[in-house]
Amino acid sequence: MFARWAAVAAVLLWAGSAAAQTSTVVNNPQEYQRAVRAAKPGDTIVLADGVWTDFQILFDAEGQPGRPITLTAQTPGRVILSGQSNLRMAGRQLVVSNLVFRDGHSPTGEVISFRRSRDRRAVESRVTGVVIDGFNKPDRGTSDNWVAMYGSHNRFDHNHLTGKTNLGTTLVVVRDEQQGLDNRHRIDHNYFGPRPNLGSNGGETIRVGTSADSLSASNTVVENNWFEGCDGEVEIVSNKSGGNIYRGNVFFQSRGALVLRHGDGNLVENNVFIGGNKPHTGGIRVINRNQTIRNNYMEGLAGDGFASAFSIMYGVPNSPINRYHQVDNAVIENNTIIGARSIFLGAGMDEERSAGPINSRFANNLIVAADGRRDPVRILGDLAGIAFAGNIQSPAVSEGLTRGVEGRAVTLTRGPGGLMVPEGLEGVGAARDLRIVARGGTGVDWYPKHGQQPRLDTGGEVAVAPGEGTLAAAAEAAAPGAILTLAAGRYSVDRTIAVDAPLTVRGPAEGEAEIAFSRPALFQLQRGGSLKLSRVAVTGRDAPDEVGNAVIRVAPGSNAANFEVIVEESRVSDLTVNRGFDVISLGKGSMADQVLLKGVTVENVTGAVISAAAETDDRGTYNVEAVRIEGGSFRRVGGPVVDLYRGGTDESTFGPRLSVTGAVFDHAGSTATPALLMRGVQFAEVSGNRLTDSGVIRFNHRVGEPVLVARDNQLVRSPALESDVAPVATLPETL
Predict the structure, then answer these.
(1) I need a surface site. Which of 118, 129, 150, 551 has the fewest CB within 10 A?
(2) What is the distance between the alpha carbons of residues 284 and 261, in angstroms, rounded to a whole number?
(3) 163: left (phi over 0), alpha (psi -120 to 50) or beta
(4) For the residues 110-135, what does the mean pLDDT come to?
């Protein structure tokens, strides 16, 4: 009887507590603080719709299982956290939902943090339906993590994170002995939108742990997420702990790979990698012990090296915890790899990394080469420690795979999940019923997945008449993507034209539009800006003699990133008032996607034509991903035509790349100044050029396996190529 009444009393007590649950709408930070102090299990705090500027939210409360305390928006997507705002969570059984972080940056090292302090963390808590869009530090070299998961048993799901351009991981699981290393977090159904190339180490999208605690298990699950255009660096996901599961994720046209960098006993299964033949798109890289990689699907991946579709690394004997542990007891089975550029077995083998994989199994995998593609398999070192069995390769077996791989022609069709499956093969490759998590099922449905950014030549044409100040005024008023069309005549520019959106300046098909500028720079690119000059003549004879003179300048500290500079069918002359007057100067901290000169004539320049050598740190930072010079002539150039530098020894980046073809050099550089200066460049082609009375072409190795093609160049009273890398006949495919 007593037990019966106790049960009834408990039900009544629960019912009474449920009835007392409150939902409180707050309109300012003061009201919020009062509400959170008064919050009880089951309560909801609602932020009123609007823009909350400089709001540092501290959500410290104690809910109960089944009765969490919730912080949410009045209307999903209509509560904007802007300016210097962030969120810190601490306590138990908390839920945060439906907020947007935009138009600002965190004043601390994290936008969303699952802790208040080292001693006060969130556990059994959840963040869902939250958007972080371009919420970047003003200085792209300043590091922060958008999401930092501390504590244990937390969930981060159905969130939308896109547009991180500064240093630091998008989402990181932070582990230490004080909080406990067995985290058991769940990260699922999130949309990780485009993250542009950072141009240095530190651009991962997800990192779970660090090398210091990597020998312990985190037991975190990362599943059913969508990674789209996550191009920050070579590691999209950097696993640095043990016992984690990566399952059912989609990597769509993202440069880099899922990398088992540190930690043992991880499971990678049912993931889909779709590259679309985009350069540097990769799959899975295997390192360490007891890893299981099964039932994954890879199609159209164009990466190589550490960003190959699939790679197994060599390790360091008796490796320090922060280097590369030997692959031991890896199980790699029932994976499908279609149309890959590279499968790299023995990646990274060198004098230090000399320990090949052991006790491992590679079984029932399907490798199908793309039509007309070369053999994708590259082998370094001894693979005796890998048992091959039941694998199929089409159309034929690679040289070096003499056992456990059968060569045969395979016909592929689209399976029920939209992926390619082989006809007449059972038990080989990924399962026929493997399906892709729907893009629309990740993130939120009330915020656009991928807004199209303005590009060059996508706006309307604006006619600009010759005269004083007309070009500067038109550029200032131009819409993003606009094309300013110039007539024949002289355009005088008496102020530096700031470019903060894509802008094209195009001269006439007949006659000449001459642009004369009387400031230290004609154009200065800022964040968001790209520039294209076409059919114009630029003269610097009216410019003053000042430090940093350039026609196109990206100032140090501007943090301009992922922009383009294109100059075509144009002439640049008389940059002589300063001994270091450059045509294009990329300042420290900037990162261009491309600099292209096509059919350009440059004459009488005291500095460099392209100066991209401003970085000095050891993170492998550089200033431009790709430099291309196609044709054109460069006469009486005091500095290098190209000065391109990438320092450090870190292996987390892709470039830079340089191509100089069909150009004429006449008195470019000198006996003391190279005509082309390449330091740390990863891929370079210098072919079909004529150098007369010019400086040397110099190529210096810094890191990785750089490739240099130097052929069919005519040297007239110019020194021979200087390189510490032997040139090859052709650049690798797709580069």
Answers:
(1) 118
(2) 10
(3) left
(4) 97
Q: Give the pLDDT mean for 462-485.
A: 97
Reduced to 3 states, what is the DSSP secondary structure of residue 140?
A: coil
The SS3 of residue 10 is helix
Question: What amino acid is encoded at 432 in this protein?
Answer: R
Chain-centroid distance of CA 1 in Å reads 66
Cβ neighbours of residue 185 under 8 Å, at least 6 residues apart? 149, 152, 153, 154, 155, 156, 173, 218, 220, 221
DSSP helix/strand/coil, 110: strand
The overall average pLDDT reported for the chain is 92
- Tell me 303's DSSP state: -
Q: Would you say 434 and 338 are in contact if contact means Cβ atoms under 8 Å apart?
A: no
User: In the beta sheet, which residues pair with residue 61?
Assistant: 91
pLDDT of residue 729: 66
Determine the 3-state secondary structure of 701 from DSSP.
coil
Mean predicted confidence (pLDDT) in 514-530:
96
Evaluate if residue 735 carries a pLDDT over 60: no
Query: DSSP state, 290?
Result: S
Task: Give CA separation, 600 vs 487, 504, 514, 572, 641, in Å.
Answer: 19, 16, 15, 8, 12
Residue position matching structure tokens 């959840």: 126
Nearest to 299 by CA among 162, 440, 441, 412: 412
Answer for the pair 721, 727: CB distance below 8 angstroms, yes or no: yes
Reading the block at residue 206, the tokens are: 């997800």
646 contact partners, CB below 8 Å, separation of at least 6: 615, 620, 621, 622, 653, 655, 656, 679, 680, 681, 682, 702, 703
CB-count burial class (<10 Å; 0-12, 13-18, 19+) for 309? buried
Taking residue 11's Cβ as centre, other Cβ atoms within 10 Å add up to 10
Residues 429-468, buried b or exposed e (16+ Cβ, 10 A)? bbbeebebbeeeebbbeebebeeeeeebeebeeeebebee
The residue type found at 453 is Q
| Cα of 379 vs its chain's centroid, Å | 27
Ramachandran assignment for 620, one of left (phi > 0), alpha (psi -120 to 50 degrees), beta (any other): left
621: tokens are: 């930072």
Q: How far apart are CA 365 and CA 388, in angstroms?
A: 10
User: How many angstroms separate the CA atoms of 15 and 103, rounded?
Assistant: 43
**In DSSP terms, which residues pair with 108 in a beta bridge?**
none
